[in-house]
Write a structure and sequence with these properties.
The protein is an alpha+beta fold. Helix content is 24%, strand content 23%. The chain folds into two domains: 1-48, Ribbon (Pemi-like Protein 1, Chain: D), CATH 2.10.260.10; 50-86, no CATH class. The chain has helices at residues 20-25, 71-85; strands spanning 34-39, 42-47, 61-64, 67-70. Strands 1-2 form a two-stranded antiparallel ribbon. One of its GO terms (molecular function) is DNA binding.
Length: 86
């Protein structure tokens, strides 16, 4: 992990402000979602990218009943359903 040397206070609501330069560098825009991880005593923020619930792929993701599924897994599921119905 690389230190940026930036220190920000936490406000009374528990919020912090990410510096504009950092947001620009990491391509984080208004309304983007950040995923929060905890590792030992560190809080790690990552730009959220939806991934397939079956294989973890981040390519060609679609939502099905609030679940992220990639097109490859959808094709596999459709093929399996077709085979089972025969």
């Amino acid at each position: 992990m690389k230190s940026t040397g930036i220190v920000r206070p936490v406000d009374m609501f528990g919020r912090i402000v990410l510096p504009k330069e950092l947001r620009s560098t990491l391509n984080i825009t208004e309304k983007d979602s950040l995923e929060i991880f905890v590792e030992d005593s560190a809080i790690i923020l990552k730009k959220y990218q939806p991934s397939c619930i079956f294989c973890g792929s981040m390519d060609r993701i679609s939502k099905y009943k609030d679940h992220n599924v990639c097109h490859k897994c959808m094709e596999r599921l459709a093929k399996r359903l077709e085979e089972e119905s025969d």
